[in-house]
Amino acid sequence: GYIEGEIRIGGYPKVQETYARISAYCEQTDIHSPMITVEESVMYSAWLRLPTEINKHQRLEFVAEVLQMIELDEIKDALVGIPHASGISPEQRKRLTIAVELVSNPSIIFMDEPTSGLDARAAAIVMRVVKNIVNTKRTIVCTIHQPSIDIFESFDELILMKRGGQMIYSGELGQHSSRLIEYFEGIPGVPKIKENHNPATWMLEVTSPSVEAQLGIDFACIYKESHLYKRNKEIVKSQSLPTQGSEKLQFSTPFPQNGWEQLKACLWKQHLSYWRSPKYNLVRLAFIILSSLLYGVLLRQKGQNLCSSVLPFVSTQRTIVYRERFSRMYSSWAYSLAQVIIEIPYIFLEAVLFLTITYPAVNFYGSAYKVFCYNICKPLLHVVQLVLRVPHTRTGLLTSQYGDIEEEIMAFGEQKALNTFLDSQYGYKHRDLPIIAVVLLAFPLVFASVFTYGIAKLNYQRR
User: Fold this and answer.
1) Where would I find the ABC-2 type transporter transmembrane domain in this sequence (predicted)?
2) Are 201 and 313 in the same domain?
3) Rounded-to-integer distance, Cα 24 and Cα 26, Å
4) Are residues 218 and 321 in the same domain?
5) What CATH number does the domain containing 48 carry?
6) More confident: 311 or 211
7) Is the domain of 337 the same as that of 382?
8) Count of the separate structural domains present in the chain
């Protein structure tokens, strides 16, 4: 079933854009860019999420303070790496997730199973870090399953729900879980806890569906009839109304940083990721060199052009972008523009290599004008080639190379000038070359716009 209601913050309806600025959410899956260091990950988050009033020096000091609090200062220069393959350990990765969110200086932090997938020692380290955060007077809300006694009793309050989302307890744990034990032992038929038994394990055992069926009771109904439930309802009611003289929390700008700072931060991160991915870049260059050599050998001295093969580029950053957008770190256009800009130098290098190898091998006309036109009509951006129309490329290549050549050739038994043959046979006119160039250059711009729209509007992740 569905549980419906209204979420209020300080008595005012929750606005997600505002709430994301004052809260933090640590996902169960630790998602980070693999090719940047631990310190750079935290710096990137601080750059985009702290307000503009915080200068660079203060930001760096705060990053250092967070790294020390989360006990990551000793590995701050280590690359994050890929989970279960390289980089930092799962426990360190979990602490990095917490640090990336904590550096935004939130009032409340939500954690989805912070100890999931960790052994007892790693879980203890993570919970020690959580305690360090609590000591800074921040509120932490965790979901957790079957914790150890030490982890369980480190919490102040507990919300316990049965299958279906019905609440069966909400209140303080008490010292050594005394309040929780007192509540459930007060229900007729519930077995007492054994000495030295984990209260969390006992709690889950006595509230299981089998025990409910055996005792013929419904813990959700018992809770709704309890004094504890009535007290909680009064607290919720009092907190659902704005206090006298208070104002609704709102910010003057949709993001902590302006568009220019967002673009600079995204460019900085993308540059580091690309520069530290030599395997990826070398594969791209090797593909261009090999395809250029093959192209030149097949068409050696033929002066003709064929369309090269296309390998699509699949982004590995999608899930990271979802998390960062959810945290209101940057606008979609800032990330998209940074992604496009960071590709330009790599594509330019590929274009120069391709041109240097193929142009003299094919023996096209050796003028600077024709070389320039050839480079425009032979795009190397693999993703753009997925939507680039082949006729425009073919028209541009033939027109730029031969559209102004009056040398006579024998075609279909007739002696004709080469430019006349192109015009009469295919309708390729040299005067149309500027229009073709504009069309070809427009395709990357259109693709970049579609990419930006997709980043902003399309989401393949269900929360």
Assistant:
1) 261-374
2) no
3) 7
4) no
5) 3.40.50.300
6) 211
7) yes
8) 2
Q: Which of 182, 206, 239 is the last residue of a domain?
A: 239
**Looking at the domain assignment, is residue 444 inside a domain?**
yes
Residue 316's contacts (CB-CB under 8 Å, 6 or more residues apart) are: none
pLDDT at 392: 52
Cβ-based burial of 341 (10 A; exposed 0-12, middle 13-18, buried ≥19): middle
Q: Please enumerate in sequence order all residues whose Cβ is within 8 A of that of 127, keeping only pairs 6 or more positions apart, or say none.
A: 114, 115, 150, 151, 154
Q: Which letter, b or e, does each residue of 216-255 get, where b requires 16 or more Cβ atoms within 10 Å of its Cβ?
A: eeebbebbeebebbeebeeeeeeeeeeeeeeeeeeeeeeb
Same domain, 188 and 330: no
Give residue 403's pLDDT.
Answer: 60
For residue 250, being part of any structural domain is answered with: no
Ordered DSSP codes for 421-443: HHHHHH---GGGHHHHHHHHHHH
Residue 425's Cβ-count burial label (10 Å; 0-12, 13-18, 19+) is: exposed
Q: How confident is the model at residue 111 (pLDDT cuts 50, 70, 90)?
A: very high
* Residue 39 covered by a domain: yes
Residue 49 covered by a domain: yes
pLDDT at residue 229 tops 90: yes
Compare 402 and 318 and report the one with higher pLDDT: 318
77-91, 139-153, 360-374: segment of lowest average pLDDT: 360-374
Shared-domain flag, residues 173 and 316: no
Domain residue limits at 446? 259-457
Query: What digits encode the pLDDT tens for the residues 233-251?
Result: 999 888 888 888 888 888 8
Looking at the chain, how many residues does it have? Answer: 463
| Mean pLDDT for the chain overall | 79
Q: Is 340 left (phi over 0), alpha (psi -120 to 50) or beta?
A: alpha
193/321 same-domain check: no
Contact (CB, 8 A) for 390 and 454 = no
Among 239, 271, 303, which residue terminates a domain? 239
Q: Read off the pLDDT of each residue in 206-220 and give the average, rounded to a whole number.
A: 91
Q: Which two tokens stand for residue 47?
A: 């750059």
Does residue 378 or residue 427 have the better pLDDT? 427
> Which alpha helices (DSSP H) does 227-311 contain, by range?
227-239, 259-275, 278-298
- The predicted model scores a pTM of 0.71
389: tokens are 């129309």
CA distance 109 to 24: 5
Whether residues 273 and 387 share a domain: the answer is yes
Q: Mark whether 335 and 450 lie in a shared domain.
A: yes
pLDDT of residue 406: 65
